[in-house]
Design brief:
The chain is of the alpha+beta class. It is about 40% helix and about 25% strand. The strands form 4 sheets. Strands 6, 7, 8, 9, 12, 13 and 14 form a 7-stranded mixed sheet that branches. A 3-stranded antiparallel sheet has the order 1-2-3. A hairpin with a 4-residue loop joins β1 and β2.
Length: about 350
């Protein structure tokens, strides 16, 4: 029996179990990647098609081959070629893909499922407001997950999500995006920091322990360090953290300073932090809603887009958060350096 024919079932967690090898499984996302590589016959072309790095594609392929227990491609100077085992796997992978899509098909259920993916900043600010408006309009199940930029690009191109909220544009022929008002980026410091009384300028950050958001290469982090680099500022990084709430807590305990999107700072005062505005159009983070082109004509797609438009229409351009009692607290934070 060819190695690929050991695959026989798909679980509800989208894992392929291997017969006789309890505990081993293959992620169906890696199977989708396998199919893309088989079509492109090239790691580099696959990475370009999926908007992924070549190293990510290679790592995922190596993981798939490790989980399967055999090689599915021969590496050649001009690209890759399916091995004999890979040829046997190909029709099974296509069948798995059809099964998974059928399992997740919204048409199979009376109530549609809205699948949303978001960066960490949006999931605590704009996403809850938009979903709250949406469920008031139609009966819809909600599936929400957080992800990094490259994970969201992959999820959109693989049609695993319906919408992504993100802070950088996606350039892909099969992905549509809508730009909404940008969010200001503020310097966040401990509530008792001297910068509250007098901020001498960005150069002062060269002497401040810095808390960097997310991993190297993340778009928001790159945006911050590009802006600092243009000013000749290279703060010493004390900590890296991919949680915005965690960063605010660390700042509140005096462990460093950071830059965060303004819409995430409504609770900064209660975390022991204060925000200092950069007062510059450069210090902003774009806002995009992206979705696969093949969901564009679905009725609930247009409903959700309208909901998101309504949400951002309620946001004050000056403050970056909806006009609620929290925005009054935010105004106090924004003006702290000049009033204290």
């Amino acid at each position: 029996m060819p190695p690929g024919e050991r695959l026989f079932s798909v679980s509800t967690h989208a894992k392929i179990r291997k017969n006789g090898e309890s505990g081993d499984s293959v992620d169906t996302r890696d199977m989708e990647l396998f199919l893309t590589i088989a079509r492109c016959k090239s790691i580099s072309k696959t990475a370009e098609t999926l908007f992924m790095s070549q190293s990510t594609v290679t790592t995922r392929l190596q993981r798939l081959e490790r989980d399967l227990g055999y090689a599915v491609f021969d590496r050649l100077p001009a690209g890759v070629e399916l091995t004999e085992a890979g040829l046997h796997l190909l029709p099974l992978a296509e069948q798995v893909q059809r099964i998974v899509r059928e399992m997740s098909s919204k048409e199979r259920f009376q109530t549609p499922t809205l699948r949303v993916m978001s960066g960490r900043a949006f999931v605590s600010t704009d996403v809850p407001s938009c979903l709250s408006r949406m469920v008031q309009k139609i009966n819809v199940r909600l599936q929400v997950q957080m992800g990094l930029y490259d994970e969201m690009v992959e999820a959109l191109t693989m049609r695993r999500v319906d919408f992504c909220f993100l802070g950088e544009p996606i350039y892909h022929p099969h992905v549509r995006s809508i730009e909404f008002p940008a969010d200001a980026i503020d310097l966040v410091v401990p509530a008792n920091h001297p910068f509250i009384h007098h901020f001498p300028g960005l150069c002062a950050l060269n002497q401040e322990p810095f808390i960097a958001f997310s991993r190297e290469g993340a778009p928001f982090r790159e945006r911050i360090f590009q802006l600092l680099g243009k000013a000749g500022v290279f703060p010493p990084i004390r900590m890296e953290l991919d949680s915005i709430d965690g960063i605010k807590a660390m700042i509140g305990h005096g462990l460093g300073v950071s830059f965060l999107p303004r819409r995430t700072l409504a609770d900064a005062r209660f975390k022991g932090c204060a925000a200092i505005s950069m007062n510059s159009s450069d210090w902003t983070r774009p806002t995009f809603l992206a979705y696969p082109e093949d969901v564009e004509d679905k009725p609930w797609t247009q409903q959700f887009i309208q909901v998101v438009r309504q949400h951002f229409a309620t946001i004050s351009p000056a403050e970056g958060i909806p006009e609620t009692p929290l925005s009054m607290q935010r105004k106090d934070l924004a003006h702290a350096p000049t009033h204290e």
